[in-house]
Amino acid sequence: xxxxxxxxxxxxxxxxRSRDVIVRALASDMAVDTVLTEYRGHARELVQRAAEEGYxxxxxxxxxxxxNEVVNGILALPAKQRPLYAALxxxxxxxxxxxxxxxxxxxxxxxxxxEALHSxxxxxxxxxxxxxxxxxxxxxxxxxxxxxxxxxxEVERQRQRGRRATPALYTxxxxxxxxxxxxxxxxxxxxxxxxxxxVRNLFFVLVTNTTPWTYAGPSPVQPxxxxxxxxxxDVFALTRxxxxxxxxxxxxxxxxxxxxxxxxxxxxxxxCAEFTIRSQHPRPFQIDGEYLGHRQQVNFRSxxxxxxxxx
Length: 311
Prior knowledge:
With 311 residues, this protein is an alpha+beta fold. It has eight helices and 16 strands.
């Protein structure tokens, strides 16, 4: 087996030492070529190279943004040219990898991937898709309209200034934006699911492809605990943002059971094949932790059995 190892040197926890250990472990079982990403979108281009040069496997070592690029690169290829894919955790949250059940430690995750390769274990997961130019984009675990996208945008600005994207940075920015009214002053969003009345005057809307939505350090955050890779998409939206209601919703998100399907101050939709989110004016939007600019409308659909992965 020939593998192309794609490493992101800017990923939060992907150190040169851990990268070397992982590559040596992989090379004990297969022929491995290593390449490091140099700019946004580079991982997607490298997947094209892997297909052209006949690699059997692509292994990524980075955060959720790297995973998203690789996944979109793989799915842009004809089905017969798609290499196998294995994702290793090198970012600050690593939601997709951890949701697959792989260890959060990259060396332990490498061991689990090698065991899966030996046993022939493969997993096929559903993905979300948004419309847009050049065929749109796939996302692996979440998309967000409003507050969380503003958090992602600000974290990206801080990273450009040299700060590391740690859980503490995300928490500090989220709290700062909330206290400044970033979550609570703009009920401009609506969710439109075919066959149902539209729901308007929403402050924040989150779309998930699995649970958890994210991690606060080791703790899973679960606004949509029924969401699964094997099902269509779930949606969570805040309808009220007063202090007591918001604190109660956040408490439930951090609980073992997550947020119930119904309750005060929020709405949920479960297992939706397609829907549209609109805003009365452009608002921040993100997928898989990557800020995609301000949008007024995004069309979503679930793509069953979209990705085959080693796990």
